[in-house]
Amino acid sequence: MDINDLRSIMTVVSLATFVGIFWWAYGKGRKSRFDEAANLPFADKDVDEAETRLARRD
């Protein structure tokens, strides 16, 4: 086994890892979970307003 065999194996492992991550990220079963996570920054409006009022009071 020489260096070129190791390079070939690493190329195949890297491609398999990329395809696995791609499948995980764009799979149909995860869309609702990712949509929910994408809206999390907008869900804390009431908390942000309360913190703003407290900060202005100081």
UniProtKB/TrEMBL annotation:
One family name in Pfam for this protein: FixQ
Transmembrane segments: 6-26
Keyword Transmembrane helix: yes
Organism (species): Oryzomicrobium terrae
Gene it is expressed from: ccoQ
Protein name, entry field: Cytochrome c oxidase cbb3-type subunit IV
InterPro entries assigned: Cbb3-typ_cyt_oxidase_comp
Record key words, sorted: Membrane, Transmembrane, Transmembrane helix
